[in-house]
């Protein structure tokens, strides 16, 4: 599927290194994407004032200041700002299934905690998040219900957080023998 079709279908994909979109402000990008999703769901679009009222609590969720809205999408953003911006996009679009690819990449501890808090705030009993990570640190803040270990494109082990501890301590060899 094309990215816009995935988004309209309720899927959200983050990127390990979110791209810059020069000439497109965050507020315009978020407003257009949000209203496109509303149209797809048969809902009325929100005007600028209503959208800003909807957006403001989402900014607080990811610990972003409102001046980010006037900046171009990810242009000149630090790694932490890019990740926060992606989670802001996720929060605004209210995706049914987010796929978060290494959202812990290039984050300092404060940014990691902010991003994890925002992801935890988006989880509900009816929504799932698929996260890809190589490090246990993220899983200390976002506690997974299930863990799947992949090697060479195949899931080789399923379980809970305990398999992450074994993997980190003993490596992939421990996954194929147990």
From TrEMBL:
UniProt KW keywords: ATP-binding, Nucleotide-binding
Domain of life: Eukaryota
Keyword ATP-binding: yes
Gene Ontology terms, MF aspect: ATP binding
Annotated InterPro entries: FeS-cluster_ATPase_SufC, P-loop_NTPase
PANTHER family named in the record: ABC TRANSPORTER I FAMILY MEMBER 6, CHLOROPLASTIC
Protein name stated in the entry: Uncharacterized protein
